[in-house]
Request: fold
Amino acid sequence: MSLSSAGPPGSPDLVARARGGALDALRFAAALFVVVFHFGDEAPVALRGLHGFMERGYLATDFFLILSGFVLAKAYGASVASGRLGLGRFWFKRLARCYPTHLITLGILVVMVVLGGAFGFHAANEGRFDLADLPAQVFLLHAFGLGGGEWNIPAWTISALLLCYLTFPTLWRRLFLRISSPWLAALLGLGVLFGAEVLSLLLLGQDQFSLGFQWCLFRAAPLFLVGLSIARIVQTARFGGGVARVIGLGSTAVLLVNAVLLGTDLINILAICGIIVGCGAAPVTRSLPGAEWAARMSFSLFMTHTIAGALWFDLIARLAAPMAHSDLAMWGVWSGAVVFTVLLAGAYHQWIDDPIQRAIQARFFTRRPSPGAVMTPRPVRRPEPAPSA
Reply:
């Protein structure tokens, strides 16, 4: 049950594995935890009062930031290493994946706020929806300290990750592909993780994993690099299926125990890294029912839950309040918000996001044969991976 180096620095990309495994299920679970975390204060009893770990929903976002680096290396590592995919085309692909949903969700929120004000409905956190903040939102200036926490809160992750994406091709070719040992990759990831934490504590007096919106780039970049390190660990190590499962299940146990005991977030992040290593390296012998679909719509769930929350708590819950007399009824109304959010995200993914992405793929990223050229069969391309943020 040991790790050993596998191949030279230029070895092939991560082995393609079937979709529908534990990692896909975890993507949806993490997005759902973000929803519960953001809706927690609207519950009949604030969830943070039930257990202190409910105040740490930011860890689910950190999971997405780490996973984003891992998924990008898996999806694009080989084509970037071979030079078939340059920086410009790569970054445009990532922008095309993220930006349409950002603009759509922001536009829907603007319409909701304007119409709600016209009909006398005002958001409980009305100060967050200031029209003067829209330019910073449209142009995703969150990574520069502008606009974080306003309008659609999750947009800050897209802003920070788009800057991280600019560095990926160079970092992967010049640094990570030169690492031929999983131990060196692990050492690099740990160095980045501990170094960022020490700097954050010294300079800002706060854990790096829970920094505020104005420091979103400093929060996202190290975790993105850790994700690339994990990808290189999985790529260079010869993990047996049993070893990978032990790593994944053991890390899950550490995370659960640390959560119950309200232990330090550094242990939580290390456990999350172990879970990604285990799930990313373990072969998917049997797809979990619904896991692939849940993973594909997790980005929509992450990006649209602000809209769903505003609709539910500022409109539907207020209309239902006179009928919710018991504690059970009030908890039922709150639980309905989570169900409504998942259904809305599924509808958005099915009828808006997926058709838009297919159209963009066909228009900009599908090569058309020249007139008279002989058509040869090409493998079916999977949809663009979500940014996991």
Residues 94 and 162 are 7 Å apart (CA to CA). Confidence is low (pLDDT under 50) at residues 1-17.
